[in-house]
Amino acid sequence: MDTRDDLLRQGHYACPGCGLAIAMKLVLSALGERTIVVIIPSCEAVISATYPFSALKVPAFHSAFVIAAPTAAGISRALKVRGEDDITVLAFAGDGGTYDIGLQSLSGAAERNEDFIYVCLDNEAYMNTGIQASSSTPFCSWTVTTPKGKKERKKRLMDIIVAHSIPYCATATIGYPEDLIEKVKRAKKKKGTRFIHILTPCPTGWRMREDLTGIVSMLAFETKIFPLYEVYDGEIYRITKMPKGLPVKEYLSLQGRFSHLKEEEIEEIQKNVDKEWARLLYLAKRNAENCA
Ligand code: SF4
């Protein structure tokens, strides 16, 4: 990728191999300079701006943890009053700020179909404050608050957002940057609330080598743990890429957060993944032509 036009400058504060920083760079490159970003407390806040510096080449508004979506909605409405229709308003939030703390205000904004793009940068725990579990943390995963492995399954966030019947929802991962960029560009062309859920591996919290970020992102997809799909108007599902269906063990074994797993737990994870995949296929096959 040509980095001359990066809207996220070099020299920011992300850990080496941070998937979140890569995702921010890709999203911003797809949206271009006419973008205003809303940031809430999270790793992306540290990466993008530690006072008095800023790594972003676009205007950014730092808001409270709970209100990424309504802040973006307010900026979007203010721009319309000023007649500035060519600026994209983008909210960046982590899984904590989306799955847990910001879910209520995101739901309200989505219900009103406010005009902005919301990107959930999902590293599956509260990494910024010391790796505590969020409701995005996967079943059996180690965190400092789930030292023996999390007992609950990861919340089905996409289903909740899709239930608002907003114009566009999609999943993406940095392991497939072209797919990610295409989805962001597709979202940009639409009006109303658009939601993109991006899996962003975190070498620090996932206890893995920092050069594995890309490979682990790809394996999350190839094992069907993180399928790539879109949903239009809360109804039309489209699987954008077909995974190979590799065993989940190939993904789990590269990450220290799963190193304590017993065979029966791996089998249970595999069973859950197969079930979720069958459900997604069923939803997509209702629109057969939408299966890639
Ligand atoms: S803790 Fe994880 S998400 Fe946060 S900057 Fe480091 S690698 Fe990125």
Can you give a write-up of this model?
With 292 residues, the protein is α/β, with parallel strands linked by helices. Helices cover 37% and strands 15% of the residues. It contains 11 helices and 8 strands. The chain has helices at 19-31, 43-48, 68-81, 95-100, 103-111, 157-162, 177-189, 203-206, 213-222, 248-252, 263-285, and strands spanning 35-39, 60-62, 88-94, 116-122, 168-173, 193-199, 229-232, 236-239. The protein has an 8-stranded mixed β-sheet with strand order 2-1-3-4-6-5-7-8. The longest helix is centred in the C-terminal third of the chain and has 23 residues, at 263-285. It is globular and about 60 Å long. It binds iron/sulfur cluster. Iron/sulfur cluster (SF4) binds at residues 14-15, 18, 20, 43, 123, 127-128, 202-205.
Strand sequence of the main sheet, in spatial order?
2-1-3-4-6-5-7-8
Number of E strands: 8
Question: What ranges have pLDDT less than 50 throughout 5 or more consecutive residues?
Answer: none
Structural class: alpha/beta
Principal-axis shape equals globular
Please outline the major beta sheet. 8 strands, mixed
Overall mean pLDDT: 95
Distance between the ends: 25 Å
| Distinct helical segment count | 11
Q: What share of the residues does DSSP label as strand, in percent?
A: 5-15%
Distinct ligands: iron/sulfur cluster
Helix content: 25-40%
Instruction: Please provide the ordered H/E string of secondary-structure elements.
Output: HEHEHEHHEHEHEHHEEHH
Radius of gyration: 18 Å
Topology overview:
Elements: H1 19-31, E1 35-39, H2 43-48, E2 60-62, H3 68-81, E3 88-94, H4 95-100, H5 103-111, E4 116-122, H6 157-162, E5 168-173, H7 177-189, E6 193-199, H8 203-206, H9 213-222, E7 229-232, E8 236-239, H10 248-252, H11 263-285
Parallel strand pairs: 1-2, 1-3, 3-4, 4-6, 5-6
Antiparallel strand pairs: 5-7, 7-8
Helix pairs in contact: 1-7, 3-5
The structure holds iron/sulfur cluster (SF4).
